[in-house]
Amino acid sequence: MLAQNLAKEDKMAWTIFPIEIYENRLPHWILHHAVIFNDAIFVPLQPKIFPGYRYLAGNPDERVFIQQQSAGGMCHNCHRWFTPSELYPKGNFHYCLHCAEELFPDYRPCHYCHEFLHEDNLYFATDNYTGEHVPLCYDCYSSETWQCEGCGEVFCDSPTLRDDWGCICENCADYYTYCYDCERIVHIDDAIAVDGCWYCEDCAPEEEEDDGLLSYYYKPTPVFFPYHDNSFLYLGVELEIDHGYRSEFLERAERKELYFKVDGSLSSDGVEIVSHPATLSYHRENLGWRDVLEIARQCDFKSHDAGNCGLHIHINRSFLRGKNGKKTEELNITKLLFIHERFFTKILKLSRRTQSQLDRWAKSYFGEDEEITAGKVNGIAKNPNLGRYYMINLENTNTIEFRFFRGTLNLVSFFAALEWVDFICRFVLDTSIAKIVRMKWGDLVQHIDENRYPNLKKYLRGRGLAIVQQDLFPSERRIA
Q1: Could you report the per-residue pLDDT of 173-189, keeping only the tens digit for each?
Q2: Could you give phi then psi for residue 276, rounded to 5 degrees?
Q3: Among 134, 194, 224, 225, which has the highest number of CB atoms less than 10 A from its own CB?
Q4: Where are the domains of the chain?
């Protein structure tokens, strides 16, 4: 088929050849100025002014081609016509994806503007809905990405949740909700349920105590047992239990050292048992935990088997600080963090949690393959504002929270957790950072005195953690 229109003023005439007949038969100098569109080859009669002018419409193929001029362009290499989304700019020319990948193997297109850039000049973000790791140019990375307030990862595409303070990604969205009143995003642990609606702390309507159960945000003035001395190491316990007979438990478990609160991570039958700060010996000998845990079992409560319960233990920062001030406190926190990060696989086993539970409630400060150094850990110790959902939470002003233990109603497991925290806090006070950096897991557990920490020793043996390890240091976990 041949169709021809005469050029007038700034318009030009086209010769149209069926592609199936002429694609391999036309001279190269003609094809150099041609545009391939659908099933036709369009050759301008005035090549020197091609492209970029208005055209006379002739046959149906030509009319469709002309209509596309304002919504596409020609690949500089293969001369085929493509829509804007199918063209990728590089330098002063545009290429289709096939030609660009063939001509520039070390280049990739920006996910948004399609500019082809060398791999060294690209930035990467995760598509919020597909999960794909996509390349971006600097301008698009600056304007089209956002950081999730939950996981800290950089994303592109629309956030799943957004308010004036931040964004939440698709993976984290299940753990957040909007405040019914101010519409601010709130983590479900911090959200307060009232009459079927979720509120942030500032907007939640005042509620009366329900059967002696206190609000999640209830924080009394601490009472220290047996008495207060800044040089003592005090342990404050938060034990979550769920799916039992709450009223009966609250009536029978009342103690002067304990109070009972609601918690957003538990069901409507759940209870968070909170202790005032007490020494380890007071917890074991005077507080009555054996009776409290037995009452919880008799009231059909679950903790370990509930799947959503934790055992959190707070210690007073003043013990780590002593009389030497903030620098000493930071150094001792560095030692604590280094031990738990370096022996992460052992701590995972010690905690009785699954990897996914730790990732959600008590994650590591480091990525799986990230190098751990004392310098990096010290930087974390100096920054208490990284978030609370780490295995050792530094956000509180007066306490440090060990969050990685799974809830339990087993007395040995319960006291083993308290004894671990007591042991490790005393250990870092007496051990230099240089010695800790060189230490293996076997060296560490050898320091645990069975007479002082009988439950911990029994627990470690039961979980295969008391065996002296002879393997090489790097096998413990990632390390410099």
Answers
A1: 888 888 888 888 988 77
A2: -70, 160
A3: 134
A4: 14-71, 235-475
